[in-house]
Design brief:
Shape: elongated
Strand content: 15-25%
Helix content: 40-55%
Largest sheet: 9 strands, mixed
Radius of gyration: 31 Å
Number of helices: 21
Bound molecules: the ligand Cc1ncc(COP(=O)(O)OP(=O)(O)O)c(N)n1, 4-methyl-5-hydroxyethylthiazole phosphate, magnesium ion
Distance between the termini: 81 Å
Number of strands: 17
């Protein structure tokens, strides 16, 4: 196989499109030939997750089915050679595989048959993880496969990735205790025919960090990685080799592929170091940490949405603040002091930088008081200042899109005037509905009113909590809450708080009107 020329080639996608004979985009494709791990930490399952996480398609030829968990390997069922051959033929004859990665190859006849298949259907690169013994110490391949590795598979490989035990086994049982030993092992394994060798030193005693030795046929590269203290290391070998394969399939050359793979494994271990799966000594780690760290980690400070937060919803207005000579931070501070339960920054005229800066300052105030802060219209500003959520209207970014950008924990409110909009709000993943204008207002132009009847209709049409908005003040807030619809949770107001001289006093007055009205409704029901 002449993978040397192909690995690291550019213009790969165009070539792949021609090969597939169809127009459209062909994703980078890794075929893993390995064993299934019922615990899903290693083997085929790890390979699929690793390739998927790095953006490569992963097809699978299963050589054995293992019964294993975090304690060890309880059983191995080897797939008959003919059926491994059939799987290989199915995938390789049809799917334009870029890179083959091998894991558990339980018998020499399977090794030999794989080599024949690869000669019949050449691929761009072959990554061999010479799996022999599981991390729990269980034997996964008969020692006779060593001959198959040495004589047939390794000469075809672009890289072979033994750990210390495997390197030792490939070299007849020599002892490997130092970095110098690893270098000489890498060189000796290279003489067996692979284009490059990575000897993994995770088990090397007396080293502060994990050192791997990469030999490219000419030079040694010492690759250092932080040693992460965790029990969750099951599947690191499979994952590293699969990541290398995925990077090669994407067009990387060998050394950058190894570096990217090491970074991925290091980050996965760091993210997963405290997860608990299984009762045994060695647990799996989370290959999909990138998805979760984006969505979950960043949001560790998120305010957990409580529909009662909508009770007294203060919405800012830059024109009013200007008129009264207030900064936005003063305005929201006063509203919180007066008893506002949620704040929305509705800054229609602000430039982005100014908006991000003031929103960040407001976030600090709100967080210190445990009051959620939402951003009107601007998902980007909400993300930038890690706000608790957004409020969007029917002509703003769709709720479903905002949800996928903000993740599951942020609060999303949406304006609705019709029952259909209200039903869709729930299906799209909104947390609440803003319904209005209920009454006429000069704060928002060209905004037809729905009245108290329209408000009730919206409330009844949705399971979501609703906040009423538009022309609401101390004079009519009692009527609004007096509708008594259970999911009407409060009122949102702009001018009756911020177009007044004393924001905190107006907020207090409104709060007591709302409290009286809700107690009256409770008494009636
Ligand atoms: C709580 C609440 N409800 C409704 C709105 C109005 O949002 P939208 O329809 O997007 O109009 P603008 O506020 O963007 O002019 C709101 N802001 N808050
Ligand atoms: C933003 C908005 N959406 C519907 S009405 C309205 C304006 C509410 O302002 P005010 O409380 O001053 O009537
Ligand atoms: Mg809007």
């Amino acid at each position: 196989m002449s993978a040397a020329a192909a690995v690291g080639c550019s213009g790969f996608k165009a070539m792949a499109t021609v090969r597939s004979g169809r127009s459209g985009h062909k994703p980078p494709h890794v075929l893993t030939v390995a064993g299934s791990d019922s615990g899903a930490g290693a083997g085929i399952q790890a390979d699929m997750k690793a390739c998927g996480a790095l953006g490569a398609y992963c097809s699978t030829v299963i050589t054995a089915v293992t019964a294993q968990n975090t304690v060890g390997v309880q059983g191995v069922h080897v797939v008959p050679e003919d059926f491994v051959a059939e799987q290989l033929r199915s995938v390789l004859s049809d799917m334009d595989v870029d890179v083959v990665k091998t894991g558990m190859l339980p018998s020499i006849s399977i090794v030999k048959m794989l080599c024949r298949s690869l000669k019949e259907f050449p691929v761009r690169a072959l990554v061999v993880d010479p799996v022999m013994v599981s991390t729990s110490g269980d034997v996964l391949a008969s020692p006779t496969i060593l001959a198959g590795f040495r004589e047939e598979l390794l000469p075809m490989a672009d890289i072979v990735t033994p750990n210390l035990k495997e390197a030792s086994a490939l070299l007849g049982g020599i002892s490997l205790k130092t970095i110098a030993d690893m270098q000489s092992a890498a060189k000796s394994i290279h003489t067996l025919g692979p284009r490059t060798v990575l000897v993994k030193g995770g088990d090397l005693p007396d080293t502060m960090d994990a050192v791997d030795i990469f030999f490219d046929g000419k030079e040694f590269h010492e690759l250092h990685g932080e040693r992460i203290s965790t029990r969750n290391t099951h599947g690191t070998g499979c994952t590293l080799a699969s990541c290398i394969a995925a990077e090669l399939a994407k067009g990387s050359s060998m050394l950058p592929a190894i570096q990217a793979a090491k970074t991925f494994v290091g980050n996965a271990l760091r993210y997963s170091k405290d997860i608990v799966i299984g009762r045994g000594p060695q647990g799996p780690f989370d290959h999909l940490f990138q998805l979760k760290s984006h969505i979950f980690n960043l949001n560790s400070n998120d305010h957990h949405f409580n529909p009662d937060d909508l009770f007294l919803y203060a919405v800012t207005d830059s024109r009013m603040n200007k008129k009264w000579g207030r900064s936005i931070t003063n305005a929201i501070g006063a509203a919180i002091e007066g008893g506002a339960t949620i704040i929305q920054l509705r800054e229609k005229e602000a430039h982005t930088r100014e908006f991000v800066e003031s929103a960040t300052a407001c976030m600090e105030i709100c967080r210190s008081h445990g009051v959620p802060l939402l951003i009107n219209d601007r998902i980007d500003v909400a993300l930038a200042c890690d706000a608790d959520g957004v409020h969007v209207g029917q002509s703003d970014m769709p709720v479903s899109m905002a949800r996928s950008l903000l993740g599951p924990n942020k609060i999303i409110g949406v304006s609705c005037k019709t029952p259909i909009q209200a039903q869709k709000a729930y299906l799209d993943g909104a947390n609440y509905i803003g319904c209005g204008g209920v009454f006429p207002t000069t704060t928002k132009e060209n905004n037809p009113t729905v009245g108290l009847d329209g408000l009730k209709t919206i409330c009844l049409a949705s399971k979501l909590p609703v906040v009423a908005i538009g022309g609401i003040s101390v004079g009519n807030a009692g009527d609004v809450m007096g509708t008594g619809v259970p999911n009407l949770k409060g009122v949102a107001v702009v001018s009756s708080l911020f177009d007044r001289e004393c924001v905190s006093a107006e907020t207090q007055r409104l709060r007591s009107v709302l409290m009286d009205a809700t107690s009256a409704v409770k008494e009636l029901s």
